[in-house]
Amino acid sequence: MGRSFIVEADGGSRGNPGRAGSGSLVMDAETGEILAEIGTWVGIATNNVAEYRGMVEGLRRALELDPTAGILVRMDSQLVVEQMSGRWKIKHPDMRELAAEARELIGHRPVTFEWIPRAENARADALANRAMDMGHSFGL
């Protein structure tokens, strides 16, 4: 197996639905070094859809860096964590589509999901807000 990564992801919407963006960063789990920062302009969407988009983009970048890496996804969205862990059903069609995209990326790789308090997710939150402010993606 390759390295281990931590993906921190967040998303937000101003209006819910409204102007939406997501942020994610990829860190080396051993050193804590930030390897990638991604802000994604989501367009007009709900907060939950933006949260999912952040998680998907973080996973995508981590797997580009090392397709064999073990990944811990940390988010302050209990909904996304519980749904991706298989404990809660996904009813919303847009979120179901994004969850399927994430599962396709993950395949049989070792990926786990962990809920963290909002205060511990400030870096991903800042990236999401920057994407919303700019109205376009960066770091992709």
From TrEMBL:
<dbReference type="InterPro" id="IPR036397">
    <property type="entry name" value="RNaseH_sf"/>
</dbReference>
<dbReference type="InterPro" id="IPR012337">
    <property type="entry name" value="RNaseH-like_sf"/>
</dbReference>
<dbReference type="Pfam" id="PF13456">
    <property type="entry name" value="RVT_3"/>
</dbReference>
<dbReference type="GO" id="GO:0004523">
    <property type="term" value="F:RNA-DNA hybrid ribonuclease activity"/>
</dbReference>
<feature type="compositionally biased region" description="Gly residues">
    <location>
        <begin position="12"/>
        <end position="21"/>
    </location>
</feature>
<dbReference type="InterPro" id="IPR002156">
    <property type="entry name" value="RNaseH_domain"/>
</dbReference>
<dbReference type="GO" id="GO:0003676">
    <property type="term" value="F:nucleic acid binding"/>
</dbReference>
<feature type="region of interest" description="Disordered">
    <location>
        <begin position="1"/>
        <end position="23"/>
    </location>
</feature>
<protein>
    <submittedName>
        <fullName>Probable phosphoglycerate mutase</fullName>
    </submittedName>
</protein>
